[in-house]
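About this split. The held-out portion is used to measure sequence recovery: a designer receives only the C-alpha cells and must propose an amino acid at every position. Recovery is the fraction of positions where the proposal matches the reference. Here is one held-out target exactly as it appears in the evaluation file.
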C-alpha cells in the first residue's frame, strides 16, 4: 500500500480536525507521515475530547505519524514545503509515495511565502513539471480543466490548442482508474458550441483542432466535441463519458460541486506522485467544533493510495 505524506493545511480551518478524523478511522498506515503543528493538533483533540470521543483516539494515533519536521508554530506553507520535499525525496530513492493536502487559506499562505495561485501550481513547480492538470474526481463526474486559476476575461486569450492537448493527454493516461469507458468529452467555450462561429470562433480555431490532435495522439481513446457545456454534464452523469475536459474553472467546478460537494476530490495529474485534496475550502466558520464532514478527506486518502 502506497505510503502517504499528509499536510495539516490552514491551522485555523478544518484541516487539523480532518487529520484527527483520518487517524481515528484507522486510515493511516505504517510509513505515513503527517506535517503540521503538533500543538494545534493536540489542543484541538483536547478541546473536542469531551464531546467527540474520536478526537482523543485520533490524536493518539496521529501523534505517532508526525514527521520529525513537524514542530510547534509550523504554518501551512512550511508544512506544504516540507511534505513536498519529503515526497520528492522518496521518489528520488525509488520509493513510492502519495500526498494528501488539507485545504489552505491561499491569502494567508501567500503572506507566509507561497508565490503560486494554489496547491496545483506550487506542486508542479516544486516537481519541475511543465505538463500538469487539475482533475476533479467524484463517483459520477470526473472533470479536468484546460485553464485553472485565471480571470474569466483572460480565458479566451490564454486558451490554446497546446493547453487542451496537454490536459487531454494527461486525462487519457488516468482513464484506467475510471473503469472501461474510453470516451472523453471536450467542452465548448461559448454557448451552443459557438453556433458555427456566430457566438464565438474558439470552437473552430482552437478546440476542434485540439480534439483532432488528441485523436491522433491517444489511440484507443474517443474524444468527443466540442460539446455544449449545458448538455455535456448530463451525458457524463449517465455514464456515456468517462470524463470531461472543461475550458475554464467554473465551467467545470460548478456542476461538479453540485453533485460532489461532500465526496469529490481535487487531484493533480502529471506529478511524479499521486496527490489529492478534499474538494472544499478551509471552512473557518465551523473550525474547532467537531462538525466538519470528513467524506471528501476520506475520499482523498483512498484516491491517493490508488483506490480511486
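Reference sequence for scoring:
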Amino acid at each position: 500500500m502506497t505510503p502517504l505524506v499528509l499536510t495539516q493545511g490552514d491551522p485555523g480551518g478544518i484541516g487539523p480536525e480532518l487529520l484527527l478524523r483520518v487517524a481515528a478511522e484507522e486510515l493511516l498506515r505504517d510509513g505515513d507521515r503527517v506535517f503540521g503543528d503538533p500543538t494545534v493538533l493536540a489542543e484541538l483533540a483536547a478541546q473536542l475530547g469531551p464531546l467527540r470521543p474520536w478526537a482523543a483516539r485520533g490524536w493518539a494515533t496521529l501523534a505517532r505519524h508526525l514527521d520529525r519536521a513537524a514542530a510547534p508554530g509550523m504554518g501551512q506553507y512550511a508544512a506544504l514545503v516540507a511534505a513536498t520535499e519529503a515526497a520528492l525525496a522518496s521518489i528520488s530513492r525509488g520509493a513510492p509515495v502519495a500526498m494528501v493536502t488539507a485545504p489552505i487559506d491561499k491569502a494567508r499562505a501567500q503572506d507566509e511565502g507561497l508565490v503560486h495561485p494554489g496547491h496545483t501550481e506550487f506542486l508542479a513547480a516544486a516537481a519541475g513539471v511543465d505538463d500538469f492538470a487539475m482533475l476533479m474526481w467524484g463517483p459520477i463526474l470526473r472533470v479536468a480543466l484546460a485553464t485553472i486559476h485565471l480571470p474569466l476575461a483572460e480565458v479566451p486569450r490564454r486558451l490554446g490548442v497546446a493547453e487542451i492537448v496537454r490536459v487531454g493527454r494527461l486525462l487519457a493516461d488516468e482513464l484506467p482508474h475510471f473503469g472501461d469507458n474510453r470516451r472523453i468529452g471536450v467542452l465548448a467555450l461559448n454557448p451552443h458550441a459557438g453556433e458555427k462561429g456566430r457566438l464565438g470562433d474558439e470552437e473552430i480555431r482552437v478546440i476542434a483542432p485540439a480534439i483532432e490532435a488528441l485523436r491522433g495522439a491517444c489511440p484507443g481513446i474517443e474524444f468527443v466535441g466540442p460539446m455544449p457545456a449545458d448538455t455535456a454534464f448530463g451525458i457524463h452523469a449517465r455514464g456515456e463519458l468517462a470524463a470531461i475536459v472543461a475550458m475554464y474553472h467554473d465551467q467545470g467546478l460548478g456542476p461538479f460541486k453540485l453533485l460532489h460537494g461532500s465526496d469529490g476530490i481535487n487531484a493533480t495529474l502529471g506529478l511524479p506522485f499521486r496527490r489529492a485534496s478534499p474538494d472544499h475550502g478551509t471552512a473557518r466558520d465551523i473550525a474547532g467544533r467537531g462538525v466538519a464532514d470528513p467524506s471528501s478527506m476520506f475520499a482523498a486518502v483512498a484516491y491517493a493510495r490508488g483506490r480511486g
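Annotator remark: The chain has two domains: 1-129+271-308, 130-263.
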